[in-house]
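Service request form, structural biology core

Requester: graduate student, group of Dr. S.
Request type: structure prediction, single chain
Budget code: on file
Notes: please return the result as structure tokens.

Sequence provided:
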Amino acid sequence: MTSTADRLARQQGREQGIGTNKKAVKFSQQDYETLRQQCLKSGRLFEDNCFPAEPASLGHKELGPGSEETKGVDWKRPMELCPNPKFIVDGATMTDICQGKLGDCWLLAAIASLTLDQDILPRVVPQEQSFTEGYAGIFHFQIWQFGEWVDVVIDDRLPTRKGKLIFVKSSERSEFWSALLEKAYAKLYGSYEALSGGNTIEGFEDFTGGIAEEYYLDKAPPNLFQIMQKALSLGSLLGCSIKTTSTDEKETRTALNLFKGHAYSVIRAVEVDIQGKPVQLVRIRNPWGNKEWTGPWSDGSGEWNDLSEDEKSKLNPADDDDDDDGEFWMSYSDFIKQFSKLQICNLTPDTILSDKVGHWNHYQYEGTWRKGSTAGGCRNFSATFSSNPQFVVCLEDVDDDPLDGKDGCTILVGLMQKERRQHKRLGRDPECIGFYIYKVPDQYKGQSNVHLGPDVLLEQSFVAKSSFPNTREVCNRFKLPPGEYVIVPSTYDPNKDGSFLLRVFSEKPAAASPLEDDFDIQIEEQELSESDVDPHFKEHFKQTDGNDMEVSAFELVEILNKVVSQRSDIKTESFSLETGRLIVSLLDKDESGKLGLMEFNLLWSKIQKYLAIFKKHDTDSSGTMNSHEMRGAATEAGFQVNSGVLQAIVSRYSDAQYAIDFDCFVGCLIKLEMLFKMFKTLERAGTGKIELDMQQWLCLAIF
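Core staff response, request fulfilled:
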């Protein structure tokens, strides 16, 4: 219940802009400026109780308390390690990131790339921090996490051994911004050890909020050069590297002065004309600031002689053959031969504010997969697949200057599973996740208040799909004809709990939204006479009413159980007192706390209706209903529920095998009707909202 309240609170916060880069979420509700001022006022340096300088903050296994790797660890502040510590010395550069005794090179490569973009870096690493003016032993950083920016506060006690930092450090011993950023990242994931092992793409996204694509250059698509040009025009970050086959090859030099396992940046992609023939060129930056490619199109090579002076000035090659500044040109054909992998991190408008580049249009949605309700698994599981969350995107305008010369709408779709590193700490592997894309049938176009069932999804072929890897995120680029499409994200296997973030980037604006039923109840109020009462039921009523012609919740349960015990076609462990009280609360018109014969008659009519629906949806005649069929059964009973309500129903009313018996089915529908009527009674002038004080809320919740 509290987790549901937390989720609703986050949704309300996002509606107020909380989670954007300008209004980051405060991790662990810690406000940097408030805590800093408190420390300055008290004259004490900040000590972070949320990530204490204790063994548990180092790790849980290899770096766990008492492990060999943590012996002799001493947490020290920078002022205890050098006489004049600095936050940043002469700007943040690649040399500020030297790996320590932690397998987080993926993270450090991303941090290193961050130093190459001085527009983005200050957002992640607030520059005004220092060890002098206003110093209080507290620092903060902003990191993107699963759709929202998070401000992470830390103290500056760092793990050391024999007076030296154990983990990341700067080549400049007095500089500490990179070590403190690593600590903030470790706090976000629970420990330093949680950072061991990963993909640079993960860091790219967490420092930009962008969505990353990965291309293996031995299988480069034919239009990759055009993709690179378009990405650069949109302000995307591009990185490339040469694979290694062993750890011994790390940073080893090739015959043409490139380095294996080293992260380079791609900063330009242009096409030039040489004697009437087009030549594609790529400009690369070595973040070391030196050590350049020595092959064709390198500084001073003969290829430049074939270019006009005008072309040369546009490309601005180094005039001095010995000017080894780390930037160099090479042909695209050499690029895909020499390098192994290209990574493109596409940025959101929130990340890149410059008007000099174009912007992707960006849409994101959070969702959950829950056993028995919305965790339907992939298309292989036809009985449950359609119960997965669904999202619709309407593509109307085709791309400008299409890369392949054909009209169409380019979109990037990324599906990310949350809390993967926290699960790793608990020994749980990430789930295999992926998605399918379908064309929306004509009869459902323009609608967002529907949930497509198996009769729609399984009767047509998908137009696109992803693979199902067990990575944090799966991302694919698609080019689709204009139209409406539904995206169905899922785990590979059904009944796998998880939370996810679905993101869609489009070149042109596109209407996108969850595809979900509106919540609504359509109940026909019946007027019945005593002659309509079933004689069998009436006899039970007279035997139990105590001659006052009314039955209490206790007596009602006794009657209901006598009736259902005589039926072999439904399975129930008997009606509970809670269900009896719900029924009385709903149908007791005179607030006597009991039901009269006419009220009892109305109840019998409802139960007869619910029984017919229950048997219809009990397709295997087991006496229970599969929870995945609950949406259809509830709809037939007059209750149109969405995925959020369905999740709550299954959590509250199903058994360990996610089956719902008749007692729970009746209790659920009675409670839905009661809650709906209570809401409508308290609703303010059709606003769809109610307002309660604490006492009113408690009385209604307990009731």
